[in-house]
Each structure stands twice: as C-alpha cells, then as structure tokens.
Design goal:
The complex is a heterodimer of chains A (about 500) and B (about 500). Chain A is mainly beta and about 500 residues long. Chain A is built from 6 helices and 35 strands. In chain A, a hairpin with a 5-residue loop joins strand 19 (about 280-285) and strand 20 (about 290). The radius of gyration of chain A is 21 Å and the shape is globular. Chain B has 27 helices and no strands. The termini of chain B are far apart. The chains are: A mainly beta (about 500), B mainly alpha (about 500). At the A-B interface, loops of A face helix 5, helix 10, helix 12 and helix 13 of B.
Chain lengths: ~500, ~500
C-alpha cells in the first residue's frame, strides 16, 4: 500500500541566493524487492539561469528513509530554511547549517515513527518559534499487510482496512527542538479510526489572527481545529461545514489548497479526492462558516474520473484572481484490469477562475499537462524569475516535472517578508492588497497541497491595475499599512516588520 | 411464454432497481428463451458483484446477437457497476440506434453521463426518458438534481417539486434543500430539510444541513442534529468496515461479533441475527453472541427462542450478569415479576448495574403493568445519575399516571431546568400545570415546547404527540398546543 501514495517535494531557497531550489522526496526499496539500492531524497540547486544542479551529496540532504513528503521552515530563526521529511517510518528534521544539512531528529524532540504524510509549519502560539503539524495516515505495517481486490486480482487496499494513526503537533522552542503537545493542545481524536490524515494546511479560517489547522482525512471526516489562542484547539469541522461534503458524507481527502476563490476576502478551502467523488470547494462565508460550493463553482464534473492529489490555488495569468491546478493519478496501478476506461496514469488539470467559476483550460494553455502521468505532489514558485508562477509536479514511481509558465506578462508584485517578532519566515502573515474596488488576500504558509510545499513568497497578479495599498497583519498580530508606491511593480519587494514604536 | 416473460420482466425490474434505475418496459423483453436465460444469469452475476464475469458473458452473447438491444443495455449496466461508464455509454447508444424508444437505454445513458460528470449532456437523455414515461419520479428527481448542478435553479426547482409531489421522498426534499442553499434562501432550505426529516428522521444529508442552518442562527438544537448525524455517519462507516472485513478470507469471530452489534444498533435486525448466528456456528460457547440473539429475539416478541438462548448462555456461565439480567426481563414478560427479582439480584451480584440498566429494567416493568416497581427502578437509576433526563422524565410520567402529579411536577421542573432544549419536558410540564389549574404557566411551557418540538420530534424519531394523548389531562393541553403551533 505504501508504494502507491508518494512522494512529494517542493520549493525552497536553501542557500539564500534568491533563486528557488527544489527538494524531491524519494521512496526506496521495500522488503521483497530485488534491487535494494537506497534512494536518497534529492536537492536541486537553481543556478539562476533556469537550470538546476544536483547538490544532494554536497549538502548532506539525501535522507534515506522511505520518503513521503516534506515541508520547509526556519525552525531556529537563524535565517536558513530547514527541511522536515515525512517517511513511512521515522520522520527526519534536517537542520540547515550554512548550506549543509545535518540530521538533528534525535535531539529535536520529534519522534514520529508512524506513516507520516503531509506536514506544515506555523507559529500557532505566536511565540516567534515555528511549530509543526504532521498528518499521519494509517497503521499499515508489513506485518498487518492484507491482500485486497477481487479474486484473482490483487489491488491496494482501501484505507478502511487499517486503523488510522493519530496526527502530531509539535511546539517549537526556537532552538531547533520541539515538544509534542498533541494531547495538551487538543488536536487528538479518541478513536484512531477517525484519523487518516493525508493533507494538512494552516489557515486563519476565522480571521482572528491565530492560525487554525485543517486536515484532509482519507475516507473519514476532515478536521478543522480552531486555535483558541491559549495553546489549545477545538475541532469545529462539523459546525464549520468542512468535515463532510454538502450531502453530509465523508470523502477520500488527499491534498488541500487554500485561498480566496471568489474575491470576498475570506480564505476558502479546496480538497482533492478519489475518483467518482468531487474535488470539493468549501467557500468561507466569514468567521469559519463554509459552504460547499463545488457545484456552483463548476468543479463537480471535471475531476470525477480522476484521483486528485496535489493541488494549488495560484494566479497563473496574473489577472488578479486565483486559478487552480490539480495533480492526478490513480492509486491502483492495475485499475485498467478492473475498469477498461480508467487508467493508472491520468492527465493533470488546470482551471481558469472566471468570476468565481472554474473553467478547465488544460488542453488550451498547457498541453504538456495533458500527458497522462501518475502525479502526486505539486507546488508553485517562480523558478526563472520572470514574474509568473511555475509548477513542480512530483510523480509516483516516475520523474518529477517542472512546468514553466509562459503566460503573457501582466502586472504583478511579489513580497518577501521578514518578521521581527514572529518567526523570521513570517509564516502566518496575512496580506490584503487593495486595488481600486478589488481586494486580494494571501497568507504566507508552509506545507499545503499534497506532501509538498510551494514557495512561501506572496505573489499577487494585478492584471492591468496598480496597488493602492497593502495591509499586512504580521504573525504576532501587529498591523502595518503600506502604500502602493512603496512597491516595485513587476518585481519583488522585501519588507522587514517595523520595530515596536516605529512608524509603519 | 407469457409466464417466462413475466419472470424476466420481474427479474430485470429487480436488477435495475438495485442499480437505482427504473424497471425495463415489458414490451421490449426478448422472446428468445436462450437470451432470457442469459439475462437471468447476467442479473445474478451482477447481484453477486461479479460484473467482470457478467461483462465477459454479455460480450460473448453479443458476438452472436449484436443487434439485441436488451443485451446491450445489460452489458451497459454491468459496465456501469464497475464504473466503466465510457464503455457503458457506447453500449447504451448502440441499443438506442437499434431501438430509439428504449427507456432503459436512455436511462442508463443518462446515469452514465451523470456519473462521468457530463451533466449537461445528461439532460437530453433524461428529458427523453420523461417523454417516454412522464410519471417516472426517479428520472424527474435526477433531472432536477442535474439541472441544479448546472446552476439552472428555476428549472431544477420545478422538476424537484413535481418529483416531490409524485412521491414523498426524503432524498427529493433534501435535494430541494441543497438547491435552496445554493440559491442562498436559507428559510426555504430549512423547510425542505425539515420535510426530508419528516419522511426519514435519520436522513444524513438533511440532518447535517439542517443542523448547520440552526447553528448559523444560533439555535443550540443544531448541535444536537449534527451530533446525531455524526453518530449515524460513524456507525455507518464502522459497519461498512466490518462488512468488508467479514468478506475477507479468514475473518475472525470477533469481527462477526462486532458487526452483529453494529447491525443491531443500526436496526438491521436480520443482518445482526445472521452475524450472531455465524459466530455461534463457529463457536457455540460465545456468550455475548447467545445473549445478542436472545435480546434481538425478545425485541421481536419471540419469547421462546429468546429464552432458549438465555438458557444456553446460563448453561455456559450461571453467574453471568447479562444473562441473568435478560432472564429477569423475560420473566417480567412472562408475568413472573417475583422470579424476575431473583434473577436481577443474581445479575447485580455479578456486576454493578449502570443507570442505563436500571432505566431499561424500569421501562420493562412499566410496559408490563408494574408502575410501582418501575418507579423504584427509575429512582435507582437517578441515584446513580441524577442528571439522567430520560429516567427522570419517565419517572415523572409514571408518577403522573399514578396520580402523584405534585411529585411529577417537581421532577419535570428539574428536567426543564437542567435540559431546557428537551421538548417533551416542556410538554409534560404544560400538561401538569394545566392539571393544576395554572393556565398561564401551562401556556409558557407549551410555547417553549412548540418552539422545540418540530426538531425534537425528528431527532428522537418518535411521535410523542400520540404518546401524550394517552396521558391523563392531556386533551386540553394538546388543544392549547395545537393552537399555539398553528399560529403564524
């Protein structure tokens, strides 16, 4: 079962040169394999000219576990991004020491020997140190492995066959070490059967300045843990409308994207699912009250024969709204033997946001994405510095792919933020951009999608417009207003959070 | 030939209904006995979940009978059950090219297109179905649902309302609710979801959506509806898990036992009995299975077989607490209350009873005409759990029936104080206040009952008004209640 679920990867700037590098997670040999050659994860350095070089060995980042996913964050606020890798087996924390990585798991206080899936950093208690949530999947082991599928056809098992594994929340101490606060924080479930996490994302669902956690569970109800602001969380998924689809049924949650899809200033959630389920759009109507808007947004039909995993909401064409990418690939490698028209490899999908409704444009604008593959993770980032967001897609048992975005240039800005009182990464910052009568909102986050992480830099497309002002809410809750003339149009602008007492 | 045709029609009807389809038209059934036999076999394979075999067989037959529309439709349905809707569509289209008025082919085509998310394309086949069978409410329901998915809300509402008029179905009401939700009309959505719950109190979609609507407007009853939905969902998930688990080779006895308990909790009594029987066939010494069977048989009023299973359990362990408890309950049913107390004593000696057990025994005493013993047992329950609303409410009812209305009112007031959302408490308080001649207080209590009742009744899946009608002094209170509840 484990070999069909991974693996992921994402964008990070490990050497701080301003160019996005790529980290790819690899699985490896399993008992019974003929070739037992280990497969280290790979770190690819962006040379700055659109090409990459493999720096795995020289950076010591080639973790050898049976890899699933990764997320990135500066866990000790030393200015260098660190890597957390989820594995089928013990996860690993790789500390960035001037461009070389050291495995500090043993001394970090993190001990997650389970089947880790997606992970994400945030500063949930606003103490300036990054904390970590790890979504664990099911209690599959080689010992309890079961044979599934109809007689004569062995297939990977449905997750119902195994109990779930409780997720983990680790509270950072700012020195690269963590405390397991899963129980005290209240992010645990009594019945482990309920917890089969694959995707996780931090969002401020109720816009109260405290990051909340959303977890996509595979075939059990999803969790939305509202941050109570006192170190504890309350699961409000059911009452918020994000636990089930609009029919009140569970779905097979995989990846998650978060963003404002209808321009109302609230962060919505989009969750990918199994075939013959919808990928589901939960629209936030404010105060963490969500409505299943899948059908209204035109998303009920297009993915129904595909199994969605990685997912990203990003302004592909810089026109000022969030478009959608879904990475697809069936779980069952032999699905074709059971169903003549379903395939293991499936085409990915790209959707253009047209006034809050999504229209598939894959064939029209990105024919390369229509080539059937078994996609899993996905991430966005501007690897060539041309101002539009490119796509990284990881594949199951296949080479990852990087898709360069060659959309016609529109106006855009990108923000790099450094927090003074929150963690340096400024994870959890929320920015509202005002342009005429339009408002765009972004949150700076780690993790998301499926087993992956996008570039945390905040990218705003402007169409033909300009920026009137930005409102920045830093992770510690302080607000800053930035006039539009302080921004460099079609370029990146960096901001350091003002010191207390400084004029904003 | 007539008899065979009828048989085939019936079998096909059953087959198609199992797929959520509508029965095939009789005039289109093959008159070739060999093909009829084959269709029968295909149906059996389909029913057994062996669609791959059925598909192969249908393809083989089509090689020699390529123009047989019934075989094409059968193949399409088999393919659809394996989620191969693309190929199914080809088969339905070929059937229609041979016989353009074939209802089941249009219906199959519409279903396959819907499953593939090709909603817009499914509208024409659905409308064609309705031309052929205007009274088919299932097709009209599907048409409404698909129009709603396309955002054609006005047309969808017309179709769904007509489907609801043709047949009172919780699914149709729930779909109407979803439609109104999409339109943003929350009060219309609420009415529709209430309608669904009136037809089917455990309808998951309606419970979930109505619960959320209530919560949005700050009504605490919403949380109870959501809790009910979550419990149903969890139980259903667990049942599905254990059903799958028992289908695997070497499934453990404990798996069947767990499944039996979940079936029983879900009210699937036949399935629960089968599962318990499987356990006992494999291991006759499983006391929980014997007692499970005894309880289920007793619930059906089958006193003799129930007693047999209890005796079987007691043979295995004479001191078993649950076995002695059940024995006592059976003795009450047999009019042997004295002997029952001996069995209960043995049960309590083996294990301490919970408040729920005392309450259950009290219920049995009450149902069998022993109000004084029931009152004692309810008091025992409340001693262990003073907050037990159900036990206190039942105690109050018993006291009222016994003419001890002042005592009853004390208990009822405690209920409405502790659990102000418990509608029956307000109802009974209204009755008791009227009984005591305090009309203003009765009116206040009954007004609260009216506010809560619609949802409470659905949640509890009972028809309490009928039950209240049997209480002394209820008539006037009910008249007042009806008056209040029909006010705008």
């Amino acid at each position: 079962m484990v070999e069909t679920m991974g693996s992921g990867g994402g964008f990070l700037d490990y050497d701080g040169d301003g160019h996005l590098d790529i980290y790819l997670v690899q699985a490896g040999p399993l008992p019974g394999f003929d070739d037992l050659t280990p497969l280290p994860n790979r770190l690819l350095r962006n040379r700055g000219d659109g090409t990459f070089e493999d720096v795995t060995e020289m950076t010591g980042s080639g973790e050898l576990g049976y890899g699933m996913g990764a997320c990135f964050g500066d866990v000790d606020n030393d200015g260098a991004v660190d890597i957390y890798v989820t594995n089928f087996g013990p996860d690993r924390l790789l500390h960035n020491e001037g461009g070389r990585f050291r495995d500090v798991t043993a001394v970090s206080g993190i001990d997650n020997p389970r089947w880790g899936a997606s992970c994400a950093f945030a500063d949930f208690d606003r103490d300036g140190c990054l904390d970590l949530y790890v979504a664990n999947y099911v209690g599959f082991t080689f010992e309890n492995h079961r044979r599934c599928g109809p007689e004569g056809l062995a297939m990977y098992c449905h997750p119902d066959v195994y109990d779930g594994e409780a997720d983990r929340l680790y509270r950072g101490r700012c020195d690269g070490t963590f405390d397991d606060v899963t129980g005290p924080a209240g992010v645990r479930v009594d019945d482990p059967r309920e917890s089969k996490g694959l995707g996780v994302i931090w969002i401020d669902a109720d816009d109260d300045g405290w990051p909340d956690i959303y977890v996509a569970n595979d075939s059990t109800r999803n969790f939305l843990y509202r941050n109570n602001g006192d170190g504890t969380f309350t699961d409000i998924a059911v009452r918020s409308g994000t636990a089930y689809n609009e029919l009140g049924f569970t779905e097979a949650g995989m990846g998650i994207a978060a963003g404002d899809t209808d321009g109302d200033g609230n962060i919505d959630l989009f969750v990918t699912h199994l075939d013959f389920e919808t990928n589901t759009l939960y629209r936030n109507q404010g105060d963490a009250d969500f409505l299943d808007a899948t059908t209204v947004a035109g998303l009920a039909g297009p993915g129904v024969t595909r199994v969605g995993f990685g997912v990203n909401l990003f302004d592909m064409d810089a026109d000022g709204d969030l478009d959608l990418f879904v990475a697809n690939g069936h779980i069952l490698d032999n699905i074709g033997e059971r169903n003549g028209t379903l395939t293991h490899a499936q085409s990915d999908q790209l959707f253009e946001n047209v006034d809050g409704r999504f229209v598939e444009i894959t064939r029209l604008t990105a024919p390369d994405l229509t080539v059937p593959t078994v996609s899993r993770g996905s991430a966005t980032g501007d690897v060539d510095g041309d101002g539009d967001l490119d796509l990284l897609v990881t594949r199951n048992n296949g080479a990852a792919a990087l898709f360069r975005n060659d959309s016609p240039p529109g106006h855009w800005i990108r923000l790099r933020l450094v927090s003074r009182y929150g963690g340096r990464d400024a994870v959890g910052t929320r920015v509202r951009l005002y342009s005429g009568d339009r408002v765009q909102v972004r949150e700076l986050r780690s993790g998301g999608s499926y087993l992956s992480q996008s570039d945390p830099g905040l990218h705003f497309g402007l169409g033909g417009g300009a920026v009137d002002r930005l409102e920045v809410r830093w992770p510690d809750g302080t607000l800053q207003s930035i006039p539009g003339d302080r921004l460099r149009l079609n370029d990146e602008t960096s901001f350091v959070q003002p010191a207390a007492g400084d004029p904003s | 030939m007539t008899a065979r045709r009828t048989l085939t029609v019936a079998l096909l009807a059953g087959w198609l209904c199992a797929c959520g389809e509508t029965p095939v038209s009789p005039e289109r059934v093959s008159e070739d006995p060999a093909i009829e036999a084959l269709l029968l076999e295909l149906q059996e394979l389909h029913g057994a979940g062996r669609s791959a075999e059925g598909t192969a067989l249908a393809r083989e037959a089509l090689a020699t009978h390529p123009d047989h529309p019934g075989l094409r439709v059968a193949l399409g349905l088999l393919l659809g059950s394996g989620d191969d809707h693309e190929t199914a569509i080809e088969q339905f289209r070929q059937a229609l090219s041979i016989d353009p008025d074939r209802f089941d082919a249009w219906r199959g085509l519409a279903t396959a297109l819907t499953r593939l998310g090709r909603t817009l394309e499914s509208i024409d086949p659905l409308e064609r179905c309705l031309e052929l069978r205007p009274g088919n409410h299932e097709v009209r329901f599907q048409l409404g649902r698909n129009l709603s998915a396309l955002g054609r809300y006005d047309e969808a509402a017309v179709a769904l309302r007509q489907a609801a008029a043709d047949r009172e179905s919780a699914d149709i009401f729930a779909e109407l609710g979803i439609l109104e939700n999409r339109r943003g009309d929350r009060s219309a959505a609420e009415r529709a979801f209430r309608g669904a719950l009136r037809v089917e109190p455990g309808h998951r979609t309606a419970l979930y959506n109505l619960g959320r609507l209530f919560l949005r407007r700050g009504d605490g009853v919403g949380q109870r509806l959501l809790d009910r939905h979550a419990a149903l969902t969890t139980d259903e998930d667990r049942r599905e898990y254990y059903v799958n688990a028992t289908q695997r080779p070497g499934a453990a006895i404990s798996t069947y036992l767990a499944l039996a308990e979940l079936h029983a909790a879900a009210g699937a009594i036949d399935e629960a009995i089968d599962a318990y029987a499987t356990v006992l066939a494999r291991d006759p010494d499983r006391i929980p299975a014997a007692l499970g069977l005894a309880a289920l048989r007793l619930g059906r009023g089958e006193l003799d077989p129930a007693t047999g299973w209890v005796v079987h359990a007691l043979t295995l362990d004479p001191d078993d607490s649950k076995a002695n408890l059940l024995l006592g309950i059976m003795r009450i049913h047999r009019g042997q209350a004295g002997l029952a107390r001996e069995a209960f004593a043995a049960s309590r000696e083996a294990a301490k009873w919970t408040a729920a057990t005392h309450t259950h025994v009290a219920d049995v005493y009450r149902e069998n005409g022993h109000p004084a013993l029931a009152i004692d047992a309810y008091r025992d329950a409340l001693e262990l759990d003073p907050g037990g609303t159900r036990a206190r409410y039942a105690l109050a009812e018993c006291l009222h029936v016994e003419g001890r209305s002042t005592e009853a009112l004390t208990h009822v007031r405690e209920i409405t104080d502790r659990a102000p959302d418990f509608a029956p408490g307000w109802m009974l308080e209204g009755i008791l206040e009227l009984d005591a001649g305090r009309e203003a207080a009765a009116r206040t209590a009954l007004e609260r009952a009216v506010q809560l009742y619609a949802v409470e009744r659905l949640w509890r899946n009972v028809t309490p008004l009928r039950r209240f009608a049997d209480l002394p002094g209820a008539k006037e209170a009910l008249q007042l209640y009806e008056g209040l509840s029909t006010q705008p």
